[in-house]
Amino acid sequence: GFSVPAHAPDSPIAPPAAISSAATQSTGEVLADVDAWARAQLKDHQVQVVLKTLTRTILKQIAAGAVAHEARKQQGDLAGLLVGLITSSLATASEQADIRGVTMLPDHINGALLDLPPGTHQVQVTLGGSQVSLGTVTIRPRRLTILPLFAATAPTKLANP
Q: Do residues 156 and 132 touch, judged by C-beta distance below 8 A?
């Protein structure tokens, strides 16, 4: 047996957040579609992934067969059969697709730009119908101020799958 990584069906990108203050407002933009990038990478490298996986599986099964053959020569047919079943089962059970990297990535990265005058401002983010206050932000003259916000939203469902 073997296992190769596969992606779930495509899902639409959730609407980006709106960010505002008393002075101005802005709608977010998708800065990076990490999910689309990961899908493209997997599509581009699928042949190599499958070949590497098949090669590893075949080598494991050859090694299991060699151990079973040696056990059959030294201990008899029953021992060879049992060793063959155990080693082949272990080789099959040890195969799993490596998906560690993709499970920790966000699907999309959004960003918004507000052009605020120097001073103190209350900044709010509207995301998925709920509003979150980023609190009081002090904008210094001729400086770039970055406000990071991590928000997890529920996946958007396809209207007609």
A: no
Closest C-alpha to 108, from 41, 44, 28, 46:
28
For residue 28, pLDDT over 80 is answered with no
Which residue shows structure tokens 């090694």?
A: 63
Residue 27 binned pLDDT confidence (cut-offs 50, 70, 90): confident
Instruction: Identify the DSSP state of 147.
Output: -
Distance CA 63, CA 70 (A): 11
Q: Which residue has the higher pLDDT, 133 or 152?
A: 133
Rounded Cα gap, residues 18 and 38, in angstroms: 26
Question: Could you tell me the CA-to-CA distances from 45 to 69, 79, 144 in Å, in that order?
Answer: 36, 41, 39
The closest of 94, 124, 112 to 20, measured between CA atoms, is: 124
On the 0-12 / 13-18 / 19+ scale of CB atoms within 10 A, 159 is exposed
Structural element, H or E, at residue 102: helix 100-103
| CA neighbor of 134 nearest in space, from 121, 119, 116 | 121
